[in-house]
Amino acid sequence: MAALKYAGLDDTDSEDELPPGWEERTTKDGWVYYANHDEMKTQWEHPKTGKKRRCAGDLPYGWEQETDDKGQVFYVDHINKRTTYFDPRQAFTVEDVQQKPKRYDGNTSALEILQGRDLSDRVVVITGANSGIGFETAKSFALHGAHVILACRNKARASEAVSLILEEWHKAKVEAMNLDLASLTSVREFAEAFKAKNLPLHILVCNAAVCTQPWRLTEDGLESTFQICHLGHFYLVQCLQDVLRRSAPARVVVVSSESHRFTDLVDSCGKVDLALLSPPKKDYWSMLAYNRSKLCNILFSNELHRRLSPYGVTSNAVHPGNMMYTSIHRSWWLMTLLFNIARPFTKSMICQSQPCGAKPCLGCQIVTFFATKMLFFSVVQEYIITSSTS
Ligand SMILES: NC(=O)c1ccc[n+]([C@@H]2O[C@H](COP(=O)([O-])OP(=O)(O)OC[C@H]3O[C@@H](n4cnc5c(N)ncnc54)[C@H](OP(=O)(O)O)[C@@H]3O)[C@@H](O)[C@H]2O)c1
Questions:
Q1: How many Cβ atoms are within 10 Å of 238's Cβ, its own excluded?
Q2: What is the percent of the chain with per-residue pLDDT over 70, rounded to a whole number?
Q3: Which of 127, 135, 153, 190 has most ligand 1 atoms within 8 Å of CB, for mutation?
Q4: Class of domain 110-389
Q5: What's the DSSP call for residue 266?
Q6: Angle of helix 232-246 relative to helix 184-196, nearest 10 degrees?
Q7: pLDDT in tens, 28-60
Q8: Cis peptide before 320, with omega less than 30 degrees from 0?
Q9: Is 356 touching ligand 1 by the criterion CB < 6 Å?
Q10: 78, 133, 278, 390: least surrounded by Cβ within 10 Å?
Q11: Known catalytic residues?
């Protein structure tokens, strides 16, 4: 009943009911107007209440607005394969009053945040968009009409991600481009190829990362975690800075991590020690290297914002949430185990549709099953002991 009331369908004598001879219609951009067939006139105000109304948000998922030969707007429901002249949003019109901003919390998904946004004039580049958080972000932008470029190092995985998004909406504007952040040449070539498309760039999401990788030098002679997570992105932003500035208002989003807190960049004398960023093998600890690169992400984002915001380009660093089950843990079995244990308690469910092998292997599932059981029994045991001794 509450749902019907919310939708305005519980009261047939509602004051919103139109007098005979009137019809409710919508404009292309969602404003409701009223047509009187007897007097052959139209008006914005409801004939009874005098209120103006507009449709809430975008068309439902799978619907599209088109125009017939006579210039009349009609609606195509691609999922149920039908067309209608009735705007489906009319069931949920709202009064033309100032909306309070929505509140988001740790359970909000990317699709919910973008609900009601039309991004059809936006171009978005996301690094490492073939899996995990990058993939969900790319999908959400694409389903809201943005032209999304998945900047990935692996062609096959990138094409699979593009196909998955197109499966959800065949008209999504998604494409994959090659970008290997472990190579400064590849970053430069990506930027040149992007510029050759003559597209604007409104949103650049620096998302790609590796975590707990064994020590390895890149072709540029730098430690790979540092180059992939930070330096590659730093160089990418420098290469695309002119496009961002021309496309203002534009934004850069740097995906960092809460784990940046568990390190710093200064030596024992309190001086910034740049040698810490790309250490030799003997001084390398993978988790520390990741944390440092995430700290660099934040410092970079802050400075970028300071320098570019006067030109309409903002930059923000974000922590996406703790221990979400993506493929970030894959380089170290201990990480995989921890992520599996944490999985039921984190935001991981939202990343379910990701492609590219982030599903837990059978071994991990078995270990997680027993680890969770042991945790449960030790909590129960603890409870029994405490209550029997008190
Ligand atoms: N998951 C979490 O709990 C968590 C927590 C805090 C922060 N984060 C941050 O969230 C971001 C996304 O991570 P995720 O959890 O979604 O992990 P993910 O599923 O492993 O995604 C990482 C992406 O980066 C790509 N990548 C790795 N090396 C690359 C390279 N050299 N060049 C280009 N792309 C490369 C990977 O591509 P391939 O598939 O080809 O390897 C993959 O698409 C990262 O910045 C991470 O630090 C995640």
A1: 13
A2: 82
A3: 153
A4: alpha beta
A5: B
A6: 20
A7: 777 788 888 888 888 888 888 888 887 766 777
A8: no
A9: yes
A10: 390
A11: 290
Give the span between the Cα atoms of 179 and 228, in whole angstroms: 11
Give the DSSP letter string of 48-89.
TT---EEE-SSPPTTEEEEE-TTS-EEEEETTTTEEESS-GG
Q: In the predicted model, is pLDDT for residue 317 greater than 90?
A: yes
Residue 301 near ligand 1, beta carbon < 6 Å: no
In the reported structure, the alpha carbon of residue 255 is separated from the centroid of ligand 1 by a whole-number distance in angstroms of 9
Instruction: Please check the confidence at residue 98 and state whether its pLDDT lies above 80.
Output: no
Q: What is the pLDDT of residue 95?
A: 62
CATH topology of domain 21-91: Ubiquitin Ligase Nedd4; Chain: W; (2.20.70)
Q: Whose CA is nearest to atom 3 of ligand 1?
A: 323
Q: What is the pLDDT of residues 195-211, one digit of tens each?
A: 999 999 999 999 999 99
pLDDT tens digit string along 322-348? 888 888 888 888 888 888 888 887 876
Nearest CA to ligand 1 atom 17: 328
All structural domains of the chain with their residue ranges: 21-91, 110-389
Ligand 1 center–CA 261 separation, angstroms: 19
Q: Do domains 21-91 and 110-389 have the same CATH topology?
A: no
Relative orientation angle of helices 333-342 and 362-389, to the nearest 10 degrees: 60
**Residue to mutate (ligand 1; options 127, 131, 135; most atoms within 8 A of CB):** 131
**Ligand 1: distance of its center to the CA of 281 in Å?**
23
Ligand 1 atom 34, closest CA: 128
pLDDT at residue 357, as a whole number: 40
- Which pLDDT tens digit goes with each residue over 146-188? 999 999 999 999 999 999 999 999 999 999 999 999 999 999 9
pTM of the model: 0.72
286 HSE (CA, 13 A, CB side):
17
Residue type, 166: L
Ligand 1 center–CA 177 separation, angstroms: 16
H helices of 100-154, where?
110-114, 132-143
Per-residue tokens: 62: 């799978």
